[in-house]
């Protein structure tokens, strides 16, 4: 079944992943640190299609080998316990309400280590806002759900808000992160904490050798910017998504962080701005006041574009978080001509899948 986990095979799958990463990026072999995930209940997000039969509803997933045949999911041990335990009571309550049940196509869960739960019900028909909201309020009162959203084509109905507040901790410090429904967040919260710990440790070593401001690209909701803020003198963080930029600014305020500036910029535009091109969105930012000796990148699966890769090489230190070892290997072909590898890590964000999340610290060659 697609939602199954295999804890007895966990170590072997991690060893296989490590080998695959080393096959693609052999240069990291001597310094690789491996972070194992909890072998079950590791995902704070889960999405399920809902299948309707004349008698009942069930959670369904589809095998790519037989995509028209729904496979019933009765529990999901990949998902955190709060999601796993909510699945069946939620479906039973929805089944009792024609308003909530009719046209229901998908249910998405977003949970946090801080104990919040947001559920999105996605419909294939127009939602009657008033009627649905009343039924949804009743549902929320009977189950451990903090926030409930109804979605359909061009409709998004909120009972209150469309986000949760996560609390992530490492090094005896904790930070609060707004995580907005339907936008990027690290799905494995335990692993997200390990990634913050690793990034903080490398950063501490960097600034111990040389004071530095941090230039961060692809900052999302400020996940790394916020946790690294106390290590660098100041941080300029950039991101292409307007929603994520707003969320990062919300997160700076709720964590009372004053030395991070977030700007909505594509990575390739940051390269142009550093090369002297004027951008209205950078009007309030004096690039000359920064002492960028370190750049932090966490790009999407496609890796770095040519301009951004070129810009990265101007910095003494490059911290690179990758969700795709193939594009990491491609980027390292260039970056390792100017920089040496100092350390590397594998973070098992997605156990039992082929996905590999990793990190490297590169330092300019002597
Ligand atoms: C892998 S996520 C990392 C987000 C963040 N660092 C985190 O840990 O939550 C990649 C981010 O890059 C952003 N992105 C995608 N293409 C971009 C581009 N060309 N320039 C800037 N940001 C981009 C996405 O919106 C997304 O937030």
UniProtKB/TrEMBL annotation:
<dbReference type="InterPro" id="IPR010280">
    <property type="entry name" value="U5_MeTrfase_fam"/>
</dbReference>
<dbReference type="InterPro" id="IPR030390">
    <property type="entry name" value="MeTrfase_TrmA_AS"/>
</dbReference>
<feature type="active site" description="Nucleophile">
    <location>
        <position position="323"/>
    </location>
</feature>
<dbReference type="InterPro" id="IPR011869">
    <property type="entry name" value="TrmA_MeTrfase"/>
</dbReference>
<feature type="active site">
    <location>
        <position position="323"/>
    </location>
</feature>
<feature type="binding site">
    <location>
        <position position="223"/>
    </location>
    <ligand>
        <name>S-adenosyl-L-methionine</name>
    </ligand>
</feature>
<dbReference type="GO" id="GO:0019843">
    <property type="term" value="F:rRNA binding"/>
</dbReference>
<dbReference type="Pfam" id="PF05958">
    <property type="entry name" value="tRNA_U5-meth_tr"/>
</dbReference>
<feature type="binding site">
    <location>
        <position position="298"/>
    </location>
    <ligand>
        <name>S-adenosyl-L-methionine</name>
    </ligand>
</feature>
<keyword id="KW-0819">tRNA processing</keyword>
<keyword id="KW-0808">Transferase</keyword>
<dbReference type="GO" id="GO:0030488">
    <property type="term" value="P:tRNA methylation"/>
</dbReference>
<feature type="binding site">
    <location>
        <position position="218"/>
    </location>
    <ligand>
        <name>S-adenosyl-L-methionine</name>
    </ligand>
</feature>
<dbReference type="GO" id="GO:0000049">
    <property type="term" value="F:tRNA binding"/>
</dbReference>
<dbReference type="GO" id="GO:0030697">
    <property type="term" value="F:tRNA (uracil(54)-C5)-methyltransferase activity, S-adenosyl methionine-dependent"/>
</dbReference>
<keyword id="KW-0489">Methyltransferase</keyword>
<dbReference type="InterPro" id="IPR030391">
    <property type="entry name" value="MeTrfase_TrmA_CS"/>
</dbReference>
<protein>
    <recommendedName>
        <fullName>tRNA/tmRNA (uracil-C(5))-methyltransferase</fullName>
        <ecNumber>2.1.1.35</ecNumber>
    </recommendedName>
</protein>
<dbReference type="InterPro" id="IPR029063">
    <property type="entry name" value="SAM-dependent_MTases_sf"/>
</dbReference>
<comment type="function">
    <text>Dual-specificity methyltransferase that catalyzes the formation of 5-methyluridine at position 54 (m5U54) in all tRNAs, and that of position 341 (m5U341) in tmRNA (transfer-mRNA).</text>
</comment>
<feature type="binding site">
    <location>
        <position position="186"/>
    </location>
    <ligand>
        <name>S-adenosyl-L-methionine</name>
    </ligand>
</feature>
<comment type="similarity">
    <text>Belongs to the class I-like SAM-binding methyltransferase superfamily. RNA M5U methyltransferase family. TrmA subfamily.</text>
</comment>
<keyword id="KW-0949">S-adenosyl-L-methionine</keyword>
<feature type="binding site">
    <location>
        <position position="239"/>
    </location>
    <ligand>
        <name>S-adenosyl-L-methionine</name>
    </ligand>
</feature>
<feature type="active site" description="Proton acceptor">
    <location>
        <position position="357"/>
    </location>
</feature>
<dbReference type="GO" id="GO:0005829">
    <property type="term" value="C:cytosol"/>
</dbReference>
């Amino acid at each position: 079944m697609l939602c199954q986990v295999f804890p007895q095979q966990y170590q072997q799958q991690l060893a296989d992943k490590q080998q695959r990463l080393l096959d693609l990026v052999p240069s990291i072999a001597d310094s690789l640190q491996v972070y194992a995930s909890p072998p079950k209940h590791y995902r704070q997000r889960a999405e399920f299609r809902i299948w309707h039969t004349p008698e009942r509803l069930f959670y369904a997933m589809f095998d790519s080998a037989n995509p028209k045949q729904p496979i019933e999911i009765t529990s999901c041990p990949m998902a955190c316990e709060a999601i796993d335990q909510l699945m069946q009571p939620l479906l039973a309550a929805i089944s009792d309400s024609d308003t909530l049940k009719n046209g229901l196509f998908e249910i998405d869960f977003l949970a946090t280590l801080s104990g919040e739960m947001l559920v999105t019900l996605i419909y294939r028909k127009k939602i009657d806002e008033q009627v649905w909201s009343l039924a949804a309020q009743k549902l929320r009162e009977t189950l451990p759900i903090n926030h409930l959203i109804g979605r359909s084509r061009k409709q998004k109905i909120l009972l209150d808000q469309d986000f949760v507040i996560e609390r992530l901790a490492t090094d005896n410090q904790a930070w609060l992160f707004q995580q907005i429904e339907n936008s990027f967040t690290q799905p494995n919260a335990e692993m997200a904490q390990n990634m913050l710990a690793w990034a903080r440790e490398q950063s501490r070593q960097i600034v111990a050798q040389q004071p530095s401001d941090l230039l961060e690209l692809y900052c999302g909701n400020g996940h790394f910017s916020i946790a690294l803020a106390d290590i660098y003198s100041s941080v300029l963080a950039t991101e292409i998504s307007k929603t994520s930029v707003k969320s990062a600014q919300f997160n700076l305020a709720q964590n009372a962080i004053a030395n991070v500036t977030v700007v909505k910029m594509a990575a390739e535009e940051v390269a142009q701005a550093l090369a002297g091109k004027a951008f209205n969105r950078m009007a309030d930012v004096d690039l000359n006041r920064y002492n960028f000796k370190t750049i932090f990148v966490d790009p999407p699966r496609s890796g770095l574009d040519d301009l951004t890769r070129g810009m990265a090489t101007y910095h003494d230190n490059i911290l690179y978080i990758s969700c795709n070892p193939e594009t990491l290997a491609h980027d390292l072909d260039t970056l390792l001509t100017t920089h040496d590898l100092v350390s590397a890590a594998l973070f098992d964000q997605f156990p039992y899948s082929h996905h590999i999340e990793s990190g490297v610290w590169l330092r300019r060659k002597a």
